[in-house]
UniProtKB/TrEMBL annotation:
SUPFAM superfamilies according to UniProt: Nucleoside hydrolase
PANTHER family xref list: INOSINE-URIDINE PREFERRING NUCLEOSIDE HYDROLASE, URIDINE NUCLEOSIDASE
Assigned keywords, A-Z: Glycosidase, Hydrolase
Protein name: Nucleoside hydrolase
GO molecular function: hydrolase activity
TM stretches of this protein: none
Residues in Inosine/uridine-preferring nucleoside hydrolase domain copies: 4-304
Gene3D superfamilies: Ribonucleoside hydrolase-like (3.90.245.10)
Lineage, highest ranks first: Bacteria, Bacillati, Bacillota, Bacilli, Bacillales
Length: 312
């Protein structure tokens, strides 16, 4: 069992990633860390606690993290138009969790855990990279104590989703992303190159609806909302992208993707159209464009079958 910390901004596809991870015997969830991104940090924390309780995993600790970017004073925006006011497409129906977040911050928890288990922990980061940046800044040895970081974010070979250049998680905190990418952490990037190919078709929702469990109902309601948003931006797409679940999938079985090392830089130029872009820079120095493991192809059919067999 691989010990993992899942860093989320829960979010509909984050919720799917949590359920997929919680139901996967290859992984041991040490804790979940939350932050701003799709919605505020408070809402992300509430949603994460609620989803874990619904999964019967209320004993997995949750730690609240960043409520604003690493270097900027203000949040650049949210994704309520994709994930709903409650972040879960209205599926919460006003419910709230019974548990509370732990007393450490997300970054403190990450540091604490990698110090207890040096070289063993995989961090799966599926929101902005702010908590990770704060952990690196807090502990000079953090980078050498982590086994691997798998991030959902960025794009190396395809356009962005929040702007023509940038993917949402990187765009939410470009300075944190640049700091994390240049830190020397062993990073695998699960970006739009592959996640836009792992679509959950709307036709599959019927399987969850006919299941009749609270979890399946919740998953179907939230996914319905998410698919409507996808249809708005990509008419005719017929489903939604399984961004965050694919990052979990790559930790369970890296052979879902073809992974290639590439020199990647993050655009942090304020006001520039490409702010938050992750691009391949063959001519940059290793400090500017460190080599990152980038997922460039995915066996979408095999991944989707695996995800569907576990998520509810
Ligand atoms: C990423 O942005 C968020 O909206 C999703 O949860 C995912 O992590 C996709 O670009
Ligand atoms: Ca996310």
């Amino acid at each position: 069992m691989k010990p993992v910390i899942l860093d989320v901004d829960t979010g509909i596809d984050d919720m799917m990633a949590i359920a997929y991870a919680a139901h996967s015997p290859e992984l041991r969830l040490l804790g979940l860390t939350t932050q701003f991104g799709n919605i505020s940090s408070e809402v992300a924390t509430r949603n994460t606690l609620y989803v874990l309780e619904m999964l019967g995993q209320g004993d997995v600790p949750v730690y609240a993290g960043a409520s604003k970017p690493f270097r900027r004073a203000d949040v650049l925006g949210d994704a309520k138009h994709v994930h709903g006011e409650d972040g879960l497409g209205g599926a919460l129906r006003g419910a709230s969790p019974t548990g509370r977040a732990g007393s450490m911050t997300a970054a403190e928890f990450m540091v604490d855990q990698v110090r207890r288990m040096p070289g063993e922990i995989t961090i799966i980061a599926v929101g902005p990279l702010t908590n990770l940046a704060l952990a690196i800044e807090a502990d000079p040895e953090f980078v050498s104590l982590v086994d691997e970081v798998v991030i959902m974010g960025g794009a190396a070979t395809v356009p962005g989703n929040v702007t023509p250049y940038a993917e949402a998680n990187i765009h939410s905190d470009p300075e944190a992303a640049a700091f994390v990418f240049r830190s020397g952490l062993p990073i695998t990037m699960v970006g739009l190159d592959v996640t836009m190919k792992t679509l959950l078709p709307r036709t599959r929702l019927q399987e969850w609806r006919s299941d009749g469990t609270e979890l399946s109902r919740f998953m179907a309601d939230a996914a319905d909302f998410y698919m409507d948003a996808y249809e708005n931006f990509n008419p005719g797409i017929g489903g939604c992208a399984l961004h965050d679940p694919l990052a979990v999938g790559v930790v369970i079985d890296p052979s879902f993707c073809k992974i290639v090392a590439m020199p990647i830089e993050v655009d942090t130029e304020d006001g520039a159209p490409a702010l938050g872009q992750t691009r391949v820079n063959e001519t940059g120095t290793a400090a500017q464009s460190p080599s990152i493991h980038v997922c460039v192809e995915v066996d979408a059919e095999r991944f989707l079958a695996h995800f569907m067999s576990r998520v509810v």
